[in-house]
Design a protein that fits this description.
The protein has a two-stranded antiparallel sheet with strand order 1-2. The protein is built from 25 helices and two strands. It has a domain of 251 residues. The chain starts with 9 loop residues before the first helix and ends with a helix. Helices cover 75% and strands 1% of the residues. The longest helix is centred in the first third of the chain and has 34 residues.
Length: 486
């Protein structure tokens, strides 16, 4: 027997969203940064329950809603596997001395005044080369965070610079999955899309770098930690050598060669463990504990660094705060958050509640500027509700493709808007797969770095500005209009 489904009213469709927003606001007020320890997850589960109750009134069965939630979770499984491997990579790169070596050499090159700009540029270059903001943050980003903290900078500010650079590179790289997905959904080709994105992306990153430079000039360097003490503590605890950089070079090279992220990160984790055994016997014995031969201690220490929390104790308390990792175990809270978010998004999508809300937005479109603004707003809405940047690209892309064509607008206008809004705002949402991942990897709360992720904040406003001012808005020519109408 086929179940008949009623179409939701707009008022009914926004009930779960309002519940989510109000409850999260209360949660953040009461728990603050500790919300990620479990209370935010429970809010998402409760919101899923509200969405399920609304859906049941529309004739949806629990089996249908469960299947939608499971399908949504399934789409996040690659991200979850990558998260686990990032945790293990962070552990072996710590015990092998790779991260300490990056901090050691970085402290001798960088100073607080130029650090934020340098961090953003370095992450932009690496992400542009690899096409992956996640890999960039998990490797170079972690080291830069350690350097910045050693220089006495606030961690939210450092993370904001790292993420701004990483997402610029991810957005503009032809190797990036989102950079390939957006033009495919919109109906244009990759390099036309990248060329058209440059018009809005270059101003956004330029303004961001200027802001970071001004912040750097305003930093009081008289109260910075003694770098010589930090360098000495690292030097006494690790065998610091440029040979350690061979591992990140191999991993970055694998990603550039388009080897998938999971085998690349697994290789990086295992090489980190091997280099720990070769170069860091002192760290191996400290992590493993007393009573082991070196062979057994090597196995114990590497295994601990892969799966669980480890720390290296030095003579300096500042360095001690930098040299710790949670391994795979440290990623479980983030994975819990992602699972809860995908349940909510799956129920909202399966029941048609998300479609009802976005259809109402489309009905308000009057001009090119408002169309682009509506598309950007819809992408942000899906990042908040569906909790996944890929859905935030695909669903609005499908929704607005015909509207852009009907108004005589070239598809690269749509693909650019999708990237300017969906790709970069995903990292600003604590329960989105991107926001949860970067927060978990860096150990910095999303709300702590979000105000400083200037590139991610500016990008959607830049694309809307271009829309309302009719700057670089390409129209379809006659031949293209005929082809679009067929």
């Amino acid at each position: 027997m086929e179940t008949s489904h009623k179409k939701p009213s707009l008022g009914l469709a926004i009930v779960p969203i309002l519940f989510l927003i109000v409850t999260l606001s209360v949660n953040v007020y009461i728990f603050g940064d500790d919300g990620l320890s479990g209370s935010n997850q429970m809010v998402l589960i409760l919101s899923s329950g509200v969405a399920a109750l609304v859906a049941s009134r529309l004739g949806y069965t629990w089996t249908e809603l469960r299947e939608g939630a499971v399908k949504s979770i399934g789409s996040a499984m690659p991200s979850i596997l990558i998260l686990l491997l990032i945790g293990s990579l962070a552990g072996t790169w710590l015990i092998s001395g790779i991260v300490p070596a990056l901090i050691y050499y970085g402290l001798q090159i960088l100073n607080p005044t130029i650090f934020l700009v340098a961090a953003a540029i370095v992450c932009a270059i690496v992400s542009l080369a690899t096409g992956s903001s996640w890999s960039t943050v998990a490797t170079i980003g972690i080291a830069l965070l350690g350097i910045g903290k050693a220089l006495g900078l606030e961690e939210g500010l450092i993370a904001g610079a790292i993420i701004s650079g990483a997402y610029f590179g991810d957005k503009m790289s032809p190797l990036s999955d989102t950079t390939n997905l957006a033009p495919a959904v919109a109906g244009t080709d990759l390099f036309t899309h990248i060329r058209y994105m440059a018009y809005t992306t270059i101003p956004s990153i330029s303004i961001s770098l200027v802001i970071f430079l001004f912040i750097g000039f305003g930093i009081d360097t008289s109260t910075q930690p003694d770098v010589a003490v930090i360098l000495s503590a690292i030097d006494n605890s690790f065998n610091v050598t440029p040979w350690l950089f061979l591992v990140p070079v191999i991993v970055i090279g694998m990603i550039i060669k388009k080897i998938p992220a999971i085998p690349s990160l697994l290789t990086g984790s295992l090489l980190g463990g091997l280099f720990a055994i070769i170069f860091q016997p002192q760290a191996i014995m400290q992590v493993a504990g007393e009573g082991y031969s070196f062979g057994t201690a090597a196995y114990v220490a590497v295994m601990k660094s892969l799966y669980g929390p480890i720390s290296i104790t030095t003579s300096d308390p500042v360095v001690n705060d930098l040299l710790s990792s949670g391994g795979m175990y440290g990623m479980l809270g983030t994975i819990w958050l992602i699972l809860c978010a995908m349940v909510f998004g799956g129920i909202m999508e399966t029941s048609g509640l998300l479609h009802r809300i976005t259809a109402s937005i489309i009905s308000l479109v009057r001009s090119t500027g408002s169309l682009i603004a509506s598309t950007a707003g819809t992408c942000l809405f899906f990042n908040i509700t569906a909790s996944d940047q890929y859905l935030a690209i695909v669903v609005p892309g499908r929704m607005y493709a015909d509207t852009f064509k009907d108004r005589g607008l070239a598809p690269e206008n749509l693909s650019r808007t999708l990237e300017d809004s969906a790709t970069v705002t995903s990292v600003l949402i604590p329960w989105n797969t991107c926001g949860a991942t970067q927060s978990g990897v860096l150990g910095v709360a999303t709300m702590a770095y979000a105000p400083y992720a200037f590139f991610c904040i500016l990008s959607p406003f830049m694309t809307m500005l271009f829309g309302y001012l009719n700057i670089k808005i390409r129209k379809l020519d006659k031949k293209e209009k005929v082809a679009a109408a067929v």
